[in-house]
Each structure stands twice: as C-alpha cells, then as structure tokens.
Amino acid sequence: MIDTVILDVDGTLVDSNYHHALAWSRAFRRHGHDVELWRIHRAIGMGGDKLVAHVTGDDVEQSEGDALREDWTREFDGLIGEVRPFAGSRPLLESVKEMGLHLVLASSGQPKHVQTFLDLVGGRSLADAWTTSDDVEESKPAADLLAVALEKGGGRRGVMVGDATWDAEAAVNGGLPAIGVLTGGFAEAELREAGAVHVYAGPSELRSALTDGLLDGLGD
Questions:
Q1: pTM for the full model?
Q2: Domain check: are 142 and 203 in the same one?
Q3: Residues 185 and 110 placed together within one structural domain of the fold
Q4: By C-alpha distance, which of 101, 129, 100 is closest to 9?
Q5: Peptide bond preceding 177: is omega within 30 degrees of 0, i.e. cis?
Q6: Which tens digits make up the pLDDT trace of 96-139?
Q7: Quick one: angle between helices 48-56 and 17-30, nearest 10?
Q8: What does the alpha-carbon distance between residue 72 and residue 117 come to, in Å, rounded to a whole number?
C-alpha cells in the first residue's frame, strides 16, 4: 500500500517553469548561445547539472557549465519574487496529511529557492520532509531524489506527482507509480508516454481524485 505522496515543487505546486526557462535563456545569451525558449522549456524539470548538456551539448557543459549555472542563479534570483503558488496547492497538501499519508516535497532546486517555495505553499508546517540539490548527486530523470524523499519522509512505498516528463521518468526508474499534472506546460500524452498512470489539470483536480480513492490499487 502507498503510504507516501512525493510531490514535485517547481511547476507542480508553484508556477515557476517559465521563470526558469527565461532565466536560462538570459544565461545562455550572456554566453553567446541563442537557444530558443521552447527548447529550454522542454528541459525544465531536469536538474541544472543535466540541462546545459541536454540543451547545448557536452562541449558547452564541459567548458561553460558552471558559469552558465551561476548566471542562471543570478537571473532566477531576480525573477523568483514573481513566482506564485497554483490554486489548490495548500489544500492539496492538507488533504494528503488528513489522509494519514507521509508528505514529502521533492525538489532538486537550490536550498534558498526551495525555502522560498515552501513558504509560498505553507509547506514547512505540513510536510514530513523536503529535499534540495544538497540531497542528491544526480537529478531527474535519475531516481536518486525519490529514494532520498522516501527515506527522509519515513515511508516505505510512494507515488510521485510531477508536472514534467522527467518526473514521470524518474518514478519509472525508481519503480514507483507516477501521476502527472498539466501545470508545467507538458501535454497529457507526453506525460503518459513518460510513465504517468493518471494526469490531472492541477492541484485542485488532483486533490479531488485523491479524496475519491485515487491511490487504491496504485501500490500493487
């Protein structure tokens, strides 16, 4: 039986994916790389340790990866004040706890960014645990984050909820069921192809499904 809900943060609980994409676009341009925003958006959800190589190739990662990530941080720091929680995020967290489940907010983002997002959704008072980039060596779609989330939350069997294909792939790689939400800008068909067994419009619709017994049978 599933005893833990692992909730992605960026793009799932807070509306941040396009801020991330814009910050990366500005960082790439600062280094002379004109990368289309749509290509960057397709990579949002994987960690910054993988995004540079995924978007621009291994050579750029090797020569400029760290500098690009530093510039991305500066750009995103200037945008983070515009990020808002999705409607229904806080009630979703409350419902998970009311159901007697462990709740882990899983992010491979920088600790200072994760702390800001936790405050936006009131996550500190509800979550059993949360993760940041300090907790994992390899980000999504590797399953490292999910294993750490389960361990930190004290659960034995979890379900991963996320907005990106990378979330679903990480769940599959970790042997966990995945649920997708459309709030990150990925299509339902893409999320299902990546491994999501259910897809919902956002936190409010997911909350209704959970209270209606969504998790029954998912742990089999």
A1: 0.94
A2: yes
A3: yes
A4: 129
A5: no
A6: 999 999 999 999 899 999 999 999 999 999 999 999 989 988 88
A7: 60
A8: 18
